[in-house]
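User: Please predict the structure of the protein below. I'd like the answer in structure-token form so I can feed it into my own downstream comparison script.

Assistant: Understood. Taking the following sequence of 100 residues as input:
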Amino acid sequence: MTFDEAQSALDSLRISVDEVDLRILELLNQRALIVEKIGAVKKEMAMPIYEPKREDEVFRNVTSGNRGPLSERAVRRLFERVIDEMRTLQRERMEKEAQE
């Protein structure tokens, strides 16, 4: 493979990565919209934002559905971050609504 061929291949692969990133972003925003609704129900019922049992269910779901090449540990770390951001979203929404 020549340098130009390699560069062309890299450019094409990076375009594919960019497209996947945008799909991931769209799915994360869809998840966030659902989480906002969950937060509204929790607020109405005076339920806590943090639910360790539910988080464990999410981890079991995503790790059991993982077909690789990401390791189980990597999937768990990614979803720990996703869940943390969603929890922050719920908390910020509740605080904003409390001020209104």
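That's the full token string. The radius of gyration is 19 Å.
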